[in-house]
Amino acid sequence: MSEPGADATRARAARADVAVVGGGPAGLMGAIYLARFRRSVVLVDAGHSRVARIPRTHNYPGFARGVAGAEVRDALRTQLREYPVQVLDRFVQFVQREPEGFRLHMGGSSVAARFVLLATGVTDVPPVMTHLRAALDEGLLRFCPVCDAYEVAGRSIGVYADGPAGVAEALYLRHFSADITLFMARGGADIGERERGELARAGIRWNDMPVEAIRRVGERVVLFQGGVRAYCDTLYCALGVTVHSELAGNLGASLDGAGYVQADAHHATRVPGLYVAGDVSVGLNQIAVAMGGAAIAASAMHRALPDSWAPHPAE
Ligand SMILES: Cc1cc2nc3c(=O)[nH]c(=O)nc-3n(C[C@H](O)[C@H](O)[C@H](O)COP(=O)(O)OP(=O)(O)OC[C@H]3O[C@@H](n4cnc5c(N)ncnc54)[C@H](O)[C@@H]3O)c2cc1C
Description:
By secondary structure, the chain is of the alpha/beta class. It has two domains: 15-123 and 241-304, FAD/NAD(P)-binding domain, CATH 3.50.50.60; 126-237, FAD/NAD(P)-binding domain. It is 25% helix and 24% strand. The chain has eight helices and 17 strands. The strands form four sheets. Strands 1, 2, 3, 4, 5, 6 and 17 form a seven-stranded mixed sheet that branches. Helix 6 (193-202) links the parallel strand 10 and strand 11. The protein is elongated and about 80 Å long. The protein starts with 14 loop residues before the first strand and ends in an 11-residue tail after the last helix. Bound molecules: flavin-adenine dinucleotide. Flavin-adenine dinucleotide is lined by residues 21-27, 44-51, 53-54, 57, 59-60, 91-92, 119-121, 124, 136, 143-144, 147-148, 244, 247, 278-279, 285-288, 290. The site of flavin-adenine dinucleotide has 40 residues, from helix 1, helix 4 and helix 8.
């Protein structure tokens, strides 16, 4: 992302009304709302949005035939350029509290803002696998059943995991297909007795041997376990995510057990002036949720910021 052509004078004020950290759907939507509330906004983005990894989403509103994730991001960036928002392609290393707000440090430079909207997202923990990016692009490897299980209904589905989340994901996917196999990275020792019963009742297969390798072979995925090869049409990886909540945690925001930032119904954290939106704040990692959360956060921030009345016609 580069700086917008429009007049960015307000955004370049010594202290912006709001600094948005993250330029995925949540950060971009939040910045658009805030700019339209005539707030001065700086958006800082390291450029690794999950949305850019989506080959084609079919649950994003308004696109009957689906749309590529990169196209969604580019459309939001284009929309943002209509407003005087300063966009910095930088990584925020830490955020410091100041008497009048916050200072964001980016290695050699900093920006100050009254309020901060954190939209830093999560990163999927990937499996060790050959041709990972190609497998993702081709839908052979997937991370999110909520997003795209519909597309593989009735197919042969594998779930790759290293803990109880794998059992839950396999059971979730059973709704979409009768042909489900659970592959445990370290073997069946990670599946408890109760879970074994649940899997058996649902007709889900598993093999107690650890997974030795995962490969993409033609249009299928093959997993090697104890000298045996198992094939599936698509493999869901349930190794979890890394939640990018360090900035919030260091400022004193509370995090839940999984690392998500906790916030109230207006997306305000317990740190005054610090708001969150998107994947970093909610386990339902979805574009629509990220955008909706950003709209709620931005509206609450606008109400909580000091008034800045437009000049009276007589002035
Ligand atoms: C393969 C795949 C398929 C998916 N399919 C769908 C789908 O079909 N439908 C759907 O609704 N959702 C889907 N998702 C989920 C969707 O991509 C996310 O819910 C969405 O991108 C969340 O938006 P976000 O803005 O919260 O986070 P992100 O889009 O991840 O953006 C976060 C941004 O913050 C930046 N950042 C982080 N830390 C810092 C920092 N310290 N300083 C500066 N910048 C920082 C990152 O670089 C990144 O650009 C899919 C995800 C994946 C991986």
